[in-house]
Amino acid sequence: MCAAATAGYVLAAALLLNMCCFLLNSHFVHLYFTQQKASLWNERFNELQEYKRQHGNCRVPRKYSNTLHHWVDQQRKYFREGKIHQDRLQRLNEIGFSWNACESRWSLRYSQLMLFKKQYGHCRVPQKYAENPQLGKIIDG
């Protein structure tokens, strides 16, 4: 075999080895970032569980935690787009996660209004209702 052919084989082998190393490194980098994302998701999920334990719902206001509020919105977006992983969907459902923020707020205000009606006998909530200012703003009697 001539020296040029041997050099060609060596060069081809080196290129092939280099490509394999690149692909292997790419795989490990992807795996690393996938694990980091999963870890971050679990961290936010734990924060949401703690929020629910303290507040009784999964409706995280922006003023409580902009980061957690944004994460909750992202989960709803992924759900609407059909991009949420099945195991995450199940975990969120198990803690009573509301997939529709507007419907959730409406249900909350409706139950608050029914409590107001039970206590006062009517639904004319004053605009500046001190016990629940949000209800007073929405249901202006």
List the helices and strands and how they pair.
Elements: H1 3-55, H2 66-80, H3 86-94, H4 101-120, H5 133-138
Mean pLDDT: 80
Helical stretch tally: 5
Helix % is over 70%
Largest sheet: none
Notes on the structure:
It is a single chain. The chain is mostly helical and 141 residues long. The chain folds into two domains: 30-99, no CATH class; 101-141. Helix content is 73%, strand content 0%. The protein has five helices and no strands. It has helices at 3-55, 66-80, 86-94, 101-120, 133-138. The relative contact order is 0.06. The model has no long low-confidence stretch (mean pLDDT 80). Keywords: Membrane, Transmembrane, Transmembrane helix. It holds the Pfam family HA. Residues 41-97, 104-137 form the Helicase-associated domain.
Summarize the structure.
Keywords: Membrane, Transmembrane, Transmembrane helix. Helix content is 73%, strand content 0%.
What attributes characterize this protein structure?
141 residues, mainly alpha, 2 domains, 73% helix, 0% strand, rod-shaped
